[in-house]
Amino acid sequence: MLSMDIDLEVPSKEEEKLIPGSDENADVMDVEDDDGTPPATTEHAVEACEPNLMESFAGCENQVDVPIAEANVSKGAILEPQNGMDFESKEAAYSFYQEYARSVGFGITIVSSRRSKRSGKFIDVKVACSRFGSKRESNKTLNPRSCPKTGCKARMHMKRRQDEKWIIHSFVKEHNHEICPDDFYYAIRGRSKQPDAVACQKKGLQLVLDEKDVELMLDFFMCMKDENPDSFYAMDFDNEKCVRSVFWVDARGRHNYSHFGDVVFFDTFFVRNKYKIPYIPIIGVNHHFQYVLLGCALIGESTTSAFVWLMHTWLKAMGGKVPKVVLTDQDKVLNEAIADVFSNSRHCFCLWHVLCKFPENSGCIMNQNENFMKKFNKCIYRSWTHEQFEERWYRMVDKFELKEHEWVLSLYNDREKWAPIYMRHVFLAGISSTERSESVASFFDKFMHKAATFSEFIGQLKSFSIELYEMEAKADFETQNKQPLLRSVSAFEKQMSMIYTDTVFKKFQAEILGMVSCHLQKESEDEDTVFFRVDDFEERQNFLVVWSKREFDICCLCRSFEYKGFLCKHSLLVLQMSGVSDIPCHYILKRWTKEAKIRQNLGEKSNRLHYRVQRFNDLCKRAIELGEEGSLSEEAYGIALQALEEALKYSVGVNNSGKVF
User: Fold this and answer.
1) Helix, coil or strand: residue 570
2) Please, what is the angle between helix 251-260 and helix 612-630, to 10°?
3) Does one domain contain both 287 and 223?
């Protein structure tokens, strides 16, 4: 279509009166014509430049929950706009972008439209983030904008084709400001010129919890504190005194963190997948290879400030002890929060979460190129050095023309947080698996339901917590009373049967038994290092294993020790063939052993507790441990009760004698 057939319509003052919520002080928006020449504009240009267009969208503007338009995309999850997506009408395209904006959390507004002089029909519409343009200084503003202008460039440009369908001509995703879900509702309600209505608009956790839910939540916290004063909870309020986020952790969670606080996972699966209850479990792994809850949160908005508050609050509840590794989903907001709160921790992404995003972010690549996943898997799983990984990545990106693919580019930029080659000397406690059946998400499947009410959520959480306690108690009992059954003549198996907990030993034993399916071949050797190739017939792959004789250091391409914390069958075979009779001590992690919860010598500990409050806190934690063990059986209860009574009697005697420090 020639440019002479196109006319940019900008409403005059008279026309502005026809637009609900038009604003004479709104920012001027310059829109370029097809030939690149900026068309004429007036100082009265408003956020929506076409009265008739606004009228056609009136049904969309006043609805918060707008159904996704039927474009040539799959239904279900809210998709990100892509260039070339087509729609039956401009209203359908607008509704699609509005629903996308709602899911992300920003407001939108129509900044310009064009229609053909010849037919009078609309042919071009631009919809932008409500924070487009620049802020005007004015002392006459009675109601300042709820969504301040920041010059944001995020927008969607749609055009009408000759077949009457509308396509996305261009899409800009990045915003230059922090995402604020309130913007969406302000943008919808803003034209009414009723600030009170906006102020009363529900937001954050108000969208999830009603008054009865809040009352139920507070009762839950009170009961938790009554059961054990060492429990902890906190709430975050906004400027209007509305609850923005909530965090809590019971005494058992705080106790478990003191032993298993090396690796922590902030799981945003339920928030990211739009569950009704925006639940964020904070997860660790105990010495029985079981997931344990190290805290729980409900978060009303997925912003950097909200996650910073959550992480700071959690860290405070854990006595300021920083984890060595923090796992999260791949997300810009989480990256910023982790950098702020856990700057000295290693930040990693859960590998399963990275892999499960492939159909969503690169489904078209996978469908069009059968060899793509084969090349990708070879790159991430078969690379031995950083240089080899990067070389294979560049070749893959070049072959499949992915240099401009935003998500693939983000994966490469974040490669040190998820690619196995960069996990050397990083322990992940089995959390970052590649299969969903082993992932944290599957752990909550029977507990979390997408449409569950808050009352149902709390009830299920209580039952789930009891189940976790019983699972750990059962594993403790089996470790203490069950003699492991040896199934080979391996010296390694006999050694670790006396050290590992029952569950971890069984996993290690599977590696011992798997050695028979492997064939070892020496590839090369220098003064200190030997390179082996291990053919694994069970997995139908070969693995490179490097053994340093001087340092007693071994590394396998499968990265089992980094991901699980015990040696794989390939490394065990190399050690055995190299004449090593015992597993080196630095490959035996205390957290997997029967003594994982045994603290350092009591005398060494007490020598550092100079203040009464320190001694009080230490005794409370030890009393919790005694309560957990002493409650497992009547016999243990009797022993614990007698010990407590004797300890109390002796303590009173010492205090009465005047020997109080």
Assistant:
1) helix
2) 100
3) yes
